[in-house]
Amino acid sequence: MVVEEFATILRKERSSDLISFLRSLDKQGKKELAAGLKPLQKEYLEYRQVSSLIGHSSFKQKASPAQVNILHAAAFVCCNRKEYQKIDGFSHFLNNPLVPDILSWYCPDWFSDVINDLTKQNWLPWNFRYNTAMEFVDKGYLQPTDELLARLIPQIIFELDKDHKQRFVRENVERWPITLSHHIWLIFQFETDIHLSDRYSHFGDSKKDVKHWLETLKHYTALGVIDRERLLQESLLATGRNFNKTLSGWFVELFEFLEPTVQELISLQSQLIITLSSQHSKAVNAALNGMKVIVESPEFNVSGLLENTPVLLSSETKSVVTATLTLLEKLLRKHPDQREAITVSVCHAFIHNDENIQNKAAKLLLKYHDASRQSVNDELGRYADSMLMSAKKTLAAFLIEAAPIPDDIVPGAATQPAEAVALPALSSLDELVFLASQAFDNNDPLHIDLLPAALVNLQDQVTGAELHKFEPALQRAYATVMNDWTSTMGYLDHLLATFFIDVTRLWIEWFPAEGASLQKIHDAFKKKDEENKAKWSWYKSRILALLPWRVESGDTIYLIHKAILVVAYEKLKKGRRQPILSTPTHACGYVDPLIVVQRLLQYRAADVLPDGHDFQIAIARIASFHRDEALTEARRVLTGETLNLLEFLLNDAARPIPPFHTPYLWFMAGIAKSPRQHYPEFKDFSYAQLPSSVYTGEVPWRSFVENYKVKKYDYGKKRYEDEPAERNVLRLTLDPVQSPGVTVTAEDKGFFSKLTRLVTPGKKDPPEETRILYQFISFKAKYLSAEHNDVQRFIYLMPSNPNPILTLVTARALEYSKFWSETDKKMVTKTLEALVDLTLVYNEVTYLFIATCMVSSDKTVRSFAAELWIKGVAARDLDSTQIGRIIGMHLSGEYAPMKRFTDLISENLLKVSGAHNKALELLFTTMIEYLPDEPPVGTKRYLDLYAELLALNKSTLTSEPAGKRLKAWSSSASLKKLISSLV
Predict the structure, then answer these.
(1) Residue 527: which H helix or E strand, with range?
(2) How far apart, in whole angstroms, are the C-alpha atoms of residue 92 and residue 475?
């Protein structure tokens, strides 16, 4: 009866009758209504898709605004907190016009807790203001937490006019005396958005640049209402409370806005010293600036500063380091009795590879250090390796000459190459179950190869009695295809999960009784998929079969992994035990050639041909070790074309020997052997007509400033208009087969279906119709999405020749000097991570990718690129002059600023080893040859580093083109003296 009466009020929107109805309910009536609200809430509040007469779709609630308020008000009175928040998850009761009338006679016991818990979310309801909260407090409804009050305070001095313009009303802080006496101090204890109060508001009655809160606090300080000393203290202490950078900067601004006097600064020394430990450089600089004012005072806390100098002088912010050295210089003059402790502190500055910093520190030591102070000499000795040559020259009298860095000391040179790290073999069902349970989470880029291989190799151990062990793996596979994408998930994870789901269907078909538990999982997810499809017109079924699986962009690179999964599926379906030929045996996707021979022997014994695409991948993954042993074994057990193919692939001196019944395998072997070499024996293959860039990745490129037009909204004309703009770009000229967005032509459709069928070409098919793997490499999507989570797995398909993939990554993700999107940055980072463990064969695109990453806008990307350079120099197979040439061309084309490069050298590459210093000198010299006649911004720092390298290597400039370029730069007054010392 209660529910029916309420339903009538709701249906007829009789808000005026609701309050009397709710007040009449006893405890049992409230309980009955609470139970009846759930179906009403579902009917009225759930969003459903509706279609208009012209076919447009939208999502709407059945409820009108009045009905929403009625439902929420009823739930407010009748439900407990948990039930209420299921109905009103966004705290609509705060602006429900019915709630104030209810609160006068009923306030739920959870009311205060719900409001206080608003602070647990990142935002507060825009219409819940400090005044509202204080009115609730006055009436006894709310016991506010300090954090809630702190979050509400920034709104106090602003009111919203009818025209949505903010009005500054400073006097609002006076309405409740407790606001200025107690609540105002809470903004220093909790993170708020007070620093944004002026940024995003439009004021109709004041100038835009007025700092409203700063003015307000200063005003009431001047009146004596706010304690000035405490305000200064709290503004400093707030910078060390782990607030975000912008908010911390606002408190620094407040401190400076109050203009503390000398005496006030002296009394604030303990707070200034605490501020030196702030994680934000703006706060540290403010504290140092305050100390500069009082450093000459007899009351200055010298020991407090010295205790913090190790951290200050190791700061990455140059202004912090130089300001600290300036303070130490003043202390050295003022306190001769403490010079030993101060000069020891100065030594910490030599941690920086910055000539200006080191020279300043060296001059201080030269002037104030007494050589008899052994503690200072010992401290200098600790930094001898990091000292630049100019500083060493200044301090020669205090230093013991250190041995030069030997060329053969190469950090990481003894590290075992990735291709020599063997993967553990799976031999038991339990190992297979464990692998299947984690294979869809992208924990290891090789799981997509290892799982299908293990399923084939261990298929005899998968019996009906063991099927229940795969329930968690099947649940995980369905969760992968049905749920939203996680940050680490790629399209290949979706593909692998689809494959595994199809495999379990085979098991259920073979063992229907024992597979009943797996069937229940299939049925449950299929039902959920069908319900979603019936509910939402935009929803596409997410449970697909393996054969029709494809990515929306049509990228054919995904067909390579799909090929292996279809091969595995067919083997399981037909009970074939021959192993997958291309399954990696070692890290990064490498396959031991001896194992390949052993696998081929199993195919020969069964009189079965290996799949052509599987064989191609095995060739692309062949490792550099065990080749002699593999050839010996192949000659013993194999014959015919297969033996000839392996002879050619594994023997550097061997030439191709016809007949060529499988030309795609021979051509792949030629690429694996030497991508740049052309074999006359292959001239009649259709693949010989392909652009060499398909398998080398080498294409024309240039970096330059591009003029383009951007659309901007003209508020006066009330329309978008084109506006000229410039951007720094790197443009690669891709061949048509590599270009993103290429449409599949009619003649290509057979090629896709042929891959789907995955059969070795029949007798009636011309052998050339089988495409080589490199023809599948493409990134066609207009915008990258999840490809960055797949790129390592693409690279590990061809670990000895990833250059064609690097070409596409460079073209798509490094086109602009600053990353276009976070996805582009992830794409480059993941690619670099994959390359670090590979033994690379360098060509133009390899150098282009590494060099471009070395001047990237992202520090992590630059660091990865530096690691690749260090590794390449250590292995003595990277040509640093090529890196220097490309970086020089980038800087000439204004693709990147010089500072990115000089910062990388200082932080990552200087003094790695003697060999690296010499390689770095070559890089610098070549780079100068390609820089423009007008020195780029930051050239002085660059030449300082170059001079340091020449001094370290005890060499001189010998390049004539570089010398001419330096002479052209000598017309710059700031560079003239430095250049004269170089040439």
Answers:
(1) helix 516-535
(2) 37
Residue found under tokens 């949505």? 164
Give whole-number Cα distances, 529 to 160, 208, 314, 534, in Å. Answer: 47, 54, 57, 9
- pTM given for the model: 0.78
Does residue 65 surpass a pLDDT of 50? yes
Rounded-to-integer distance, Cα 323 and Cα 828, Å: 37
Show contacts of 654-659: CB within 8 Å, 24+ apart: 655/679, 655/681, 656/681, 656/682
The tokens describing 234, both together, are: 């709290």
Per-residue pLDDT of 513-537, as tens digits, reads 999 999 999 999 999 988 888 777 7
Per-residue 3-state assignment (H helix, E strand, C coil) for 876-913? CCCCHHHHHHHHHHHHHCCCCCHHHHHHHHHHHHCCCC
Measure the CA–CA gap between 605 and 336, rounded to whole angstroms.
90
CA–CA dist 281, 277 (Å, integer): 9
Give the pLDDT of residue 382. 87
Phi-psi map region of 164: left, alpha, beta (phi>0 left; psi -120 to 50 alpha)? left
Does pLDDT of 755 surpass 60?
no
pLDDT value of residue 588: 94
DSSP states along 9-39: HHHTT-HHHHHHHHHT--HHHHHHHHHHHHH
Task: Copy the structure tokens of residue 548.
Answer: 């029709």
Domain ranges of the chain: 1-108, 121-226, 301-402, 427-549, 701-733, 842-983
What pLDDT, in 10s, does the model give residues 130-156? Answer: 999 999 999 999 999 999 999 999 999
**Mean pLDDT value across residues 970-978:** 91
| Residues counted in the chain | 983
Q: With a cut of 60, say whether residue 207 has pLDDT above it.
A: no
- Can you list the positions of beta strands (E) in 415-531? none
* Token pair belonging to 781: 């999507």
Contact 737, 716 (CB under 8 A): no
Residue type, 490: G
CB atoms under 10 Å from CB of 899, counted, come to 14
Type of residue numbered 354: D
Q: How far apart are CA 62 and CA 56, in angstroms?
A: 18
Structure tokens at 674: 């030497």
Element (H, E) at 693: helix 693-696
Tokens 């200055």 belong to residue: 300
- % the chain with pLDDT above 90: 74
Closest CA to 662 of 695, 685, 636: 685
C-alpha span between 205 and 220 (Å, rounded): 21
Question: What pLDDT shows up at residue 403?
Answer: 53
How high does pLDDT run on average in the chain?
A: 89
What is the C-alpha to C-alpha distance for residues 750 and 90, in angstroms, rounded to an integer?
54
- Reported as a single tens digit per residue, the pLDDT across 250-277 is 999 999 999 999 999 999 999 999 999 9
Q: Which two tokens stand for residue 6?
A: 């309420």
- pLDDT higher than threshold 50 for residue 582: yes
Question: Which residues have CB under 8 Å from 357's CB, separation 6+?
Answer: 318, 321, 322, 325, 349
pLDDT band at 754 (very low <50, low <70, confident <90, very high): very low
**CA 113/CA 728 separation, integer angstroms:** 53
Task: Write down the pLDDT at residue 774.
Answer: 94
Residues 444 and 463: their CA atoms lie apart, in Å, by 27
The confidence band for 788, taking pLDDT boundaries of 50, 70 and 90, is very high
- The closest of 677, 632, 496, 650 to 569, measured between CA atoms, is 496
* CA distance readout (Å), 737 to 356, 612, 699, 776, 814: 52, 22, 12, 9, 20
Do residues 896 and 929 lie in contact, with contact meaning Cβ atoms separated by under 8 Å?
no
Secondary-structure breakdown of the chain: helix, strand, coil percentages, each rounded to the nearest 5: 60, 5, 35
